[in-house]
Amino acid sequence: MNKIGVFDSGIGGITVLKEIIKLIPNYEYVYYSDSFNNPYGNKTKEELYVIVKNVIDKLIMMDCNIIVIACNTASAICVDDIREEYKDIIIVAVEPAIKMINDYGHTDNVLLLATKGTVESTRFKNLYEKYNNNNTYVYTPLNLASLIEEGNSRKINECLKVELRGFVDKEINVVILGCTHYPLVKDKIKKILGNQIFYDGSIGVAKRVKSFIKEETKFKITFIDSSNSKEKEIRFFDLLSKK
Ligand code: DGL
Asked: In the predicted model, is pLDDT for residue 235 greater than 80?
């Protein structure tokens, strides 16, 4: 058991995986893209727990002893129960990078984008209470994660135009991408809102994973998609090879 397993409701978690690989280039990875159950963002806690448990069991079967929940929604809703259930496995979770607002003393207008599941979770509410700067808008762009998963650029642009129109004149200086799919469309968001500072939780996750690695081995990556989509596999390796 010495592989790192990373999963999300599809390919979004690649934004986290890439940060991990930057810090730990020589290791064996399994990426599980659960596109069959996408989106996670509007599932109930009960539904999501069963889904997440099923993925984790598969990753353990494939010799993963460190498992990264590369999904803000699943982390926010399930991580406490999952850690309770899998005491022998290292479970690393992601969270919206709102602490950065506090750490860097941002007093300007902040826009935090995340799924419904994340925003409604107790974990998120606690995080927000602790670190928001009283100038933070929290917003859930409807269907955005699913459209990114689908990968149709025109539809994503249309969605962003509609969903972000209420913030165009709000002089947003900082955008927190609280869903691991969203960094994949950062440039499109920039085109609409301007050149803000962007934060996401992936660097924090990568540092945390690195802290558990005693010795590196050899790079290898296995990709699994729960819909058995060849197209997804091609997209995954294409995104992985890009800077
Ligand atoms: N990428 C996920 C997240 O970080 C979930 C998106 C979804 O399936 O709704 O929240």
From this structure: yes
34 token code pair: 């659960």
Q: Domain limits of the chain?
A: 3-94+203-241, 99-200
Cα–Cα nearest to 41, from 149, 146, 136, 122: 146
Instruction: Say whether pTM exceeds 0.90.
Output: yes
Q: Is CATH 3.40.50.300 what the domain over 3-94+203-241 is classified as, yes or no?
A: no
Q: What is the pLDDT of residues 92-130, one digit of tens each?
A: 999 999 999 999 988 989 999 999 999 999 999 999 999
Closest atom of ligand 1 to CA, residue 76: 10
Instruction: Report pLDDT digits (tens) over 39-64.
Output: 999 899 999 999 999 999 999 999 99
Active site includes 179? yes
CATH topology of domain 99-200: Rossmann fold (3.40.50)
List all residues whose CB is within 6 A of at least one atom of ligand 1. Answer: 8-9, 12, 38-41, 71-73, 115, 118, 145, 179-181
Dihedral pair phi/psi, residue 37, rounded to 5°: -100, 10
How many helices (H) and strands (E) the chain has is answered by 11, 9
CA-CA-CA-CA torsion for 156, 54, 76, 18, nearest 10 degrees? -60
